[in-house]
Design brief:
The complex is a heterodimer of chains A (about 60) and B (about 450). In chain A, about 70% of the residues lie in helices and about 0% in strands. Chain A has about 60 residues and is mostly helical. In chain A, helix 1 runs antiparallel to helix 2. Chain B has 2 domains: about 220 residues, Amidase signature (AS) domain (Amidase signature (AS) enzymes); about 130 residues, no CATH class. In chain B, strand 10 and strand 11 form a beta hairpin. The two termini of chain B are about 10 Å apart. Classes of the chains: A mainly alpha (about 60), B alpha/beta (about 450). The interface between A and B is medium-sized, with 26 and 27 residues.
C-alpha cells in the first residue's frame, strides 16, 4: 500500500472513530514511514529482490 | 541520604557488620517518604507495613549469621510497572484499576531472595509510554531539585525516590531510554542491561522485543550490586577497577552530537577531555544509518504497544490519559509490511553498532541533548530548531533499545542552573553488562561527580 493511500484511509478512519487528535500524529507517522521505506536497505530489498544484508549473528 | 552511609555499597557493609540495621534505614526512608512524597509524587503506593516486616526479618537473619548477600536489608523502590506479589501494578493508569499481582515478577523474586526490602511502587509515565512522567493517572512525579521540573521518564518516580533519599536504589524499565533518561536528568547512574540479560516477565509490556529492566542508583558500584542481584549473583566480586588509562572509547559524532544544548555540548566535551587527559584513547566513529533510528524505533514500538493495548483501547478508552491513548491509537495504523521493514532496519543498525564497537571498550555519547525539562514544556529549542521534548529526549538513547547493546548513564557535569548532565557508555552485546560497568566505574572516577 502506498503511503499516500494509507494516510488517506487512516485519516478517514480516525475521523469516523471521532479521534481528530490523531490527524497530526498520523501525518507524522506517514513522514516516518516514507523515510523508513526510502532507507537504502529497503530500497535494495524492494527493488532487486536481493537478500540484502545478512541477519544479525545470533551468538 | 542518611549521614552514615553515602552509597548502597557503604550501607551494605554497615548492615553486614551490624553498625546499622535494616529497620533503622527502612524507617529513615519511610520518614523521608512521609516528608517529601506529597510534593514530589515519586511513589504511587507506599508499603510501610510490609517494608518494616521485611526489614525485621532481614535484621533477624543478619544477626543470626544467615547473610544473603549485598542487598540483604537494603530498602529499594520498584517502578509500578513491575509485579510485586499481593500489590497492585498500576502502570500509572486507570486502565489497571483493581489489579493485584498474583506473584512476584522473576526480577522481584530474585531481589527478594537477595534480602532486599521493598518500600513501594514508584510513579511513571503511563504504561511507560513517555519520557517526562507527566501523563500519569496519579499526576506527574517532580524533580527533587526543583518541583517545576520533570525528573525525566518513564521511570521518573524511581529516579526521584533515589535522588531524594526515599530509597537506596530503584528498579526501572527501559524501552527507549526510560532508565537512562531519568537517571541522567537526576544525576544518577542508570543501567540498561543487554537485551535478554534480565527477565522481563511480570513487567507490563510496552514493546515486547525492546523492553529491558534495569537499576537506577547513586553510583556505578551500587549499580553493580543491584545488577548482579537481578541475575541471582547475590555476593558478587567487587567491581574490578581497571582505571581509565588505555581504555578505547569511540564517540559517534554525526547525528548524536549534531544537535545538543550548548551547556550539554560543553560539559560533554569537557568530560571527553578529562578522560583523554587521564589516559583514555578517544576516537571518533559513526553509525552510518543513524538517520534511520527514529523511523525504525517508531514503527516497532508503536506496533508492539498497540498489540498489547488494542482490547482496552476499545473497551476502556477514557481510562487512558489523553496523550498516551492517542499515541497508542497511532500504533494501530502501522502496516505489517512497515513493521517488518523496521525489523530489517534493526538488523542493519545492530551490525553498525557492533562495528563501531569493534576493538573498543565502549561508545561514549551524551545521554540527553538537554538537561531536565520543565513540566508542561512541549518543545525544547536546540540550535535553530524547536524539537518536541519526547523526540529530543529519546534521540540519543533509543538506538540501544533497538539493538540490545548494554548502556549506562553516569553523571558528567551540571548546567549553570545546577541541573545534572549525563554521559552514556555503550558496551558490546556479547559481553553483557559486566565489562561495561567496569568501564563506567573507571570513567566515573575521573569525572568524579557521583560518589
Amino acid at each position: 500500500m502506498q503511503v499516500d493511500s494509507w494516510l488517506e484511509a487512516a485519516l478517514r478512519d480516525a475521523d469516523r472513530r471521532g479521534l481528530p487528535g490523531l490527524r497530526p500524529l498520523l501525518e507524522a507517522l506517514a513522514r516516518a514511514t516514507t523515510a523508513l521505506r526510502a532507507a537504502d536497505w529497503n530500497v535494495a530489498l524492494d527493488a532487486t529482490g536481493d537478500t540484502g544484508a545478512p541477519a544479525v549473528d545470533a551468538r | 541520604m542518611p549521614a552514615e552511609a553515602r552509597t548502597l555499597v557503604e550501607l551494605s557493609g554497615r548492615l553486614r557488620d551490624g553498625r546499622t540495621t535494616s529497620a533503622e534505614v527502612t524507617e529513615r526512608c519511610l520518614a523521608r517518604i512521609a516528608d517529601r512524597n506529597a510534593s514530589l509524587n515519586a511513589y504511587i503506593t507506599v508499603l510501610a507495613d510490609t517494608a518494616r516486616a521485611e526489614a525485621q526479618v532481614a535484621d533477624r537473619e543478619l544477626a543470626a549469621g544467615r547473610y544473603r548477600g549485598a542487598l540483604h536489608g537494603v530498602p529499594l523502590s520498584l517502578k509500578d510497572l513491575i509485579d510485586q506479589r499481593a500489590v497492585p501494578t498500576t502502570a500509572a493508569s486507570r486502565v489497571r484499576a483493581g489489579h493485584v499481582a498474583q506473584d512476584d515478577a522473576p526480577v522481584v523474586a530474585r531481589l527478594r531472595a537477595a534480602g532486599a526490602v521493598f518500600l513501594g511502587k514508584t510513579n511513571l509515565h503511563e504504561f511507560a509510554f513517555g519520557t517526562t512522567n507527566e501523563d500519569s493517572a496519579y499526576g506527574p512525579a517532580r524533580h527533587p531539585f526543583d518541583p517545576d521540573y520533570s525528573p525525566g521518564g518513564s521511570s521518573g518516580g524511581s529516579a526521584a525516590s533515589v535522588l531524594d533519599g526515599m530509597a537506596w536504589a530503584s528498579i526501572g524499565t527501559d524501552t527507549g531510554g526510560s532508565v537512562r533518561i531519568p537517571a541522567s536528568a537526576c544525576g544518577l547512574v542508570g543501567l540498561k542491561p543487554a537485551l535478554g540479560e534480565i527477565p522481563t516477565a511480570g513487567v507490563v509490556p510496552l514493546s515486547a522485543t525492546m523492553d529491558h529492566v534495569g537499576p537506577l542508583c547513586l553510583c556505578v558500584e551500587d549499580a553493580w550490586l543491584v545488577y548482579n542481584a537481578m541475575r541471582c549473583e547475590f555476593e558478587p566480586a567487587p567491581l574490578a577497577s581497571r582505571g581509565v588509562k588505555g581504555l578505547r572509547l569511540a564517540v559517534p559524532r554525526p547525528y548524536f552530537l549534531d544537535r545538543l544544548d550548548t551547556e550539554v555540548a560543553t560539559q560533554f566535551e569537557d568530560a571527553c577531555a578529562q578522560l583523554a587527559q587521564a589516559g583514555a584513547i578517544l576516537e571518533d566513529t559513526a553509525i552510518p544509518h543513524a538517520g534511520d533510528i527514529a523511523p525504525v524505533y517508531l514503527h516497532i514500538v508503536l506496533a508492539e504497544a498497540a498489540a498489547c493495548h488494542a482490547a482496552t483501547l476499545e473497551s476502556r478508552p477514557d481510562d487512558y490519559t489523553p496523550n498516551v491513548r492517542i499515541r497508542l491509537e497511532m500504533g494501530r495504523y502501522v502496516l505489517a509490511e512497515d513493521y517488518l521493514r523496521a525489523m530489517r532496519g534493526r538488523e542493519v543498525l545492530t551490525r553498525e553498532v557492533d562495528a563501531a564497537l569493534a576493538g573498543r571498550d565502549a561508545l561514549l555519547l551524551p545521554t540527553l541533548p538537554v538537561a531536565a525539562t520543565r513540566i508542561g514544556e512541549a518543545t525544547v529549542r536546540l540550535g535553530e530548531v524547536d524539537e518536541p521534548v519526547r523526540n529530543a529526549t529519546l534521540r540519543l538513547t533509543q538506538l540501544f533499545d533497538i539493538t540490545g547493546h548494554p548502556a549506562v548513564t553516569i553523571p558528567c557535569g551540571r548546567t549553570q542552573a545546577g541541573l545534572p548532565i549525563g554521559a552514556q557508555l555503550v558496551g558490546a552485546r556479547y559481553a553483557g553488562s559486566a565489562h561495561l560497568l567496569q568501564v563506567a566505574r573507571a570513567a566515573e572516577q575521573v569525572l568524579a561527580t557521583a560518589c
